[in-house]
Amino acid sequence: MKLSAYRTEIRWTIVVVVLAVLGVIALWPRDAEQRADSAAAPAPPPAAKPVDPAQRAAAALEACPTGEGAPAQLAGITGTCQADGEPVDLGAAVAGEPTLVNVWATWCGPCRTELPALQAYAEQPGAIRVLGVQVQSDPGDGLDLLAELGVHFPNVHDGDNRIRAALKAPNVLPISYVVTGAGEVRRIDPPVAFETPDEVRAAVERTLGAR
Fold first, then answer.
1. CA separation (Å) from 64 to 140, 154, 171?
2. Sheet of 175-179: strands edge to edge?
3. Pick the residue with more confidence: 201 or 48?
4. Ramachandran angles phi, psi of 80, nearest 5°
5. Which of 22-31, 100-109, 124-133, 135-144 bottoms out in mean pLDDT, i.e. has the lowest?
6. Residues 208, 178 contacting (CB under 8 angstroms)
7. 162: nearest Cα among 73, 98, 94, 93
8. 57-115 pLDDT, tens per residue?
9. pTM
10. Count of CB atoms within 10 A of residue 96's CB?
């Protein structure tokens, strides 16, 4: 009896070990897949720092424009007006008259050269309206940069990249567009950074006259 009981105990031990090994094997691929999915998931973007009202005052930006007859491509696409922190419909902001839309970011070196050239162009007689769209960078940092550069034309912060997606902007900055009075959105090509207001004017006239 003792030998039989001993053999029975060994059999049950083997059964338990086999079941445990099978359980580990069954769960291992799922666990590995979960870890792989977790590693592949992109990190959420960092939350933007609160904007100090003093930053807006120092930047002294012009109010975001609004008009009727928004281009279908941009209608209903909203951002935050950097002048006052209020939501702004980009379609309405570029409606009603020709508008130069410039997409930029604080980390973009060429943008630091181009923004003052755009400001100088905006101050010239006969210039079309200029609107900046800040992307992929903190709004407060953008206000500080605009104040440093003496740039005051209206700017919109694109916190969720909806504006950039609507413009179908490539992964290169800066990039500019001309929205015609009829609401057609035309990219300025080639996408080079402007260094002077005369370069801006030439590109705007060339793009408006295309087609």
1. 17, 5, 25
2. 87-89, 78-81, 155-158, 129-135, 99-104, 175-179, 185-187
3. 201
4. -115, 125
5. 22-31
6. yes
7. 73
8. 999 999 999 999 999 999 999 999 999 999 999 999 999 999 999 999 999 999 999 99
9. 0.77
10. 17
Asked which of 5-9, 80-84, 85-89, 164-168 is least confident by mean pLDDT, the reply is 5-9
Distances (CA, A) of 186 to 145, 177, 183, 191: 27, 5, 10, 12
**Which residues have CB under 8 Å from 128's CB, separation 6+?**
97, 98, 99, 100, 178, 204, 208
Distance CA 135, CA 143 (A): 12
**Backbone phi, then psi, for 210, in 5-degree steps?**
-65, 150
Q: Which residue has the tokens 């909203």?
A: 78
* Residue at 206: amino acid letter: R
Task: For the domain covering 53-209, report its CATH number.
Answer: 3.40.30.10
**Two tokens at 47?**
């939350």
